[in-house]
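Workshop exercise sheet. Pairs work together: one partner reads the sequence aloud, the other fills in the structure field after running the prediction. Swap roles for the next sheet.
Pair: D.N. / O.F.
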Amino acid sequence: MGNIRTTPDDGVIEIPQGITEQTLLEQLSYLMPIKILPRYSLVKCRPAALIVVDEVNGFGLVGCGPLAPPAPDPDTDDVIIRTVELARMFDYYREAIITVREWHKNPEPPHPPHCEAGSFQAQLVEPLAWLEQVAAHQVYKDCIGGWIGAEEAVGCLLKNSLYQYLYTNAIRSIVIAGWCTNICDLRLVDPLIHARNKKLLPDLEEIVVCTSAVGTYNLPLAVCRQLKLPDERAHPRGPNHYIGLNLMQHAGAILAEEIVFD
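Structure field:
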């Protein structure tokens, strides 16, 4: 632990020659390997649910707020395209689709105001807007975490609408798609796995992250400095996406590039 470098008081980190985002990603893949299945099959007629996380304009539409891509971004587009394919497949087989989206009634530091309740930023991206009509359940969350975001206080008790839906419908398989791999996806997968392991969701057997349908944002250190943001806000996409997948797999999630029904 003594070799960890922290941000100095002046906020300036000199990067040694040869260290880049790509070399960091390559080192992670050697030192923290993950296993991504090329295809994972779900069994037909066994209740499954696709959970679409935060695929809203404020994260996916170019220029739509401070956390949206500032310019056309193929990685963002690919996540949307793949999620549409998954959603069409789930809808075809009449399996559940759940949308979880940011719907902020209050600021959530350290993030700038975004996806305010009822705003255009908080609406589903246009290719997924049809989910408004077909989603079996919708969670409007005022925080990063989808599980805690589904909770409401009833006196001194908590009522969790996501838990109630999954429990009542005896969901056995959950597939995760959406943003961001290392933030909202991770913070939803973790409590789902805990709920499964603790038998709070006794029918739940597997949580599968569709790796082609998840992604995260890109904020390299150099861009942070151009925007006069603190160095610690740097968030290079590749390494953070990889770390998010690694942590979810360590928690017990299955990683798969493609999902099919057999």
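Discussion prompt: The chain has a mean pLDDT of 93. What would you look at next?
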